[in-house]
């Protein structure tokens, strides 16, 4: 993984952590369970697949084509919960070891993503929940496979994180 990619991931984690702390303080929470994160992730995966509906909805003549920007915005929401999971329960195996070598990279997950995509996009998307220790790296690889590069995901995530911070301030 390139240093610039690692910095983007670390920045996303930092921003997510800041938002988590603010939300938890606002609502008097001390933790968020894996079950809560999994359900939130599934909900956002559903919203993401809804934005992809133009690619898979065969029964509706009036179905709008996929709007890539809307899909990217929903993908950023999936990332919100993958990042929360990473902060609370992840191993952070993508960090550099003492010698500066990548321990893990999204590219390591591309063969699994390709195999899962071969079984169907639904299989690939639900796999995110199955992966306890590597869901963030898998989601990054899956996003790339779907045509969304890390730079795009990062920009969309940062926009949505700022919106969510503002929503929290406004009592959303």
List the helices and strands and how they pair.
Blueprint: H1 3-27, H2 34-51, H3 53-56, H4 68-89, H5 110-119, H6 121-130, H7 135-145, H8 150-169
Helix pairs in contact: 1-4, 1-8, 2-4, 4-7, 4-8, 5-6, 5-7, 6-7
Global structural class: mainly alpha
In N-to-C order, the SSE pattern is HHHHHHHH
Record field, number of beta strands: 0
Tally of alpha and pi helices: 8
Overall mean confidence score, pLDDT = 88
Shape: globular
Main beta sheet, described? none
Gap from first CA to last CA: 37 Å
Low-confidence parts lasting 5 or more residues at pLDDT below 50?
96-102
Radius of gyration: 16 Å
Q: Can you offer a commentary on this structure?
A:
- There is one protein chain.
- With 172 residues, the chain is an all-alpha fold.
- The chain contains eight helices and no strands.
- The chain has helices at 3-27, 34-51, 53-56, 68-89, 110-119, 121-130, 135-145, 150-169.
């Amino acid at each position: 993984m390139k240093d610039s990619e690692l910095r983007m991931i670390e920045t996303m984690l930092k921003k997510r952590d800041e938002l988590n702390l603010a939300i938890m303080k606002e609502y008097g929470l001390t933790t968020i369970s894996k079950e809560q994160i999994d359900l939130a992730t599934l909900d956002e995966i559903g919203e993401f697949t809804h934005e992809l509906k133009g690619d898979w909805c065969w029964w509706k003549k009036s179905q709008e084509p996929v709007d890539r920007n809307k899909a990217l915005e929903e993908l950023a929401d999936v990332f919100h919960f993958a990042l929360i999971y990473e902060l609370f329960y992840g191993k952070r195996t993508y960090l550099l070891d003492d010698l500066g070598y990548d321990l893990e990279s999204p590219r390591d997950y591309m063969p699994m993503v390709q195999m899962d995509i071969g079984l169907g996009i639904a299989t690939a998307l639900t796999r995110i929940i199955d992966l306890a220790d590597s869901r963030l790296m898998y989601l990054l690889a899956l996003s790339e496979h779907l045509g969304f590069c890390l730079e795009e995901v990062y920009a969309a995530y940062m926009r949505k994180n700022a919106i969510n911070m503002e929503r929290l301030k406004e009592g959303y």
